[in-house]
């Protein structure tokens, strides 16, 4: 069965075409930096390796270009769109409506749209991806895999906010959690690698969106994103943790409208607000040239990660492994180094040489004497999604 997995994210679209259950990647591709003049398009199939820098304004444009590559007579991987049996979509917010992978119909799309209010950067591009895929691959089954599903097991003390109880019981205001597919995938890899019966793991997903999950024996027990994907770590354009009094001050004293505050905190804050760029590669390059704002933003970013590591180690009463994953976690030795710096008291010791090595495999980057394993594990949300789609359709 050929399953096309689409991850239509905030600033990128990634796809993989997989032959399942063989877990064989037929081809893959991505569009990064959507919205920029120098968006990057990649397509890979066997020894065909395309990389182009092209202006791509919208997700629709990006996905159409990728679909043209898929069916391209020479470079493509399929003869016609009917060759694809199912499209598995990563959907960020499923609220309490979707605890499981689900076949998409009109009602499901309405629900995904409903949760756009809670995930304004994600559910809209996810839904757009679904609607474009329905047109491009009309005979394929369309399936949604929800990021929120991994957190249904979290204890209520970590899911509930300290506001009056009725907001939890009647209005469903609680921690939903995000990046669940990624945290599940990398933590399962780590558990296998550790080879222990029991395990306490902190999974650190650092992409444009960033989150951390505390995982005991494969089950999530705490998580840094919350009701919407805005809490916790400093992200590409999102502030992460912020005192809610700032919001009232912005509205009451500085005259910002609610919509302006939403835009400010979701789209103009985080690394973008601190440095003018949300792309860590640019920020690191400027920091190296001596840009003080970029240097400080990187320090702040790593410091926030460090605080969550401490919190989760305390919550779990121990720590066997840290996992770094996603664009920044897998590629930025600088962020990993700063986040693990001076953490010996928790048994975390980074090997600076191993930290600089770059591979696409799971790798251990702690010193031999470190009590905690520090692992870089490439996330593979696409494979995880394909597995879940196959399971549903079988
Ligand atoms: P998302 O899927 O949330 O859109 P990704 O997981 O693709 O995001 O991660 C994007 C982030 O990874 C960007 O901030 C980008 O700068 C960063 N990144 C990618 N490659 C590198 C690299 N070699 N060094 C530092 N940061 C990198």
TrEMBL record:
Biological source species: Maribacter flavus
Cofactor(s) this protein cannot do without: Mg(2+); Mn(2+)
A Pfam family it matches: Acetate_kinase
Superkingdom assignment: Bacteria
Keywords: ATP-binding, Cytoplasm, Kinase, Magnesium, Metal-binding, Nucleotide-binding, Transferase
Co-factor note (free text): Mg(2+). Can also accept Mn(2+).
Lineage of the organism: Bacteria, Pseudomonadati, Bacteroidota, Flavobacteriia, Flavobacteriales
Reactions it catalyzes: acetate + ATP = acetyl phosphate + ADP
An MF annotation (GO) of this entry: acetate kinase activity
Protein name, entry field: Acetate kinase
Protein family per UniProt: Belongs to the acetokinase family.
PROSITE patterns cross-referenced by the UniProt entry: ACETATE_KINASE_1, ACETATE_KINASE_2
Binding site for substrate: 90
Annotated binding of Mg(2+), by residue: 7, 381
SUBUNIT field: Homodimer.
Record-annotated active site: 147 (proton donor/acceptor)
Pathway stated in the Swiss-Prot or TrEMBL entry: Metabolic intermediate biosynthesis; acetyl-CoA biosynthesis; acetyl-CoA from acetate: step 1/2
Subcellular location: Cytoplasm
Physiological role: Catalyzes the formation of acetyl phosphate from acetate and ATP. Can also catalyze the reverse reaction.
UniProt keyword Transferase present: yes
Binding sites annotated in the UniProt record for ATP: 14, 205-209, 279-281, 327-331
Signal peptide range: none
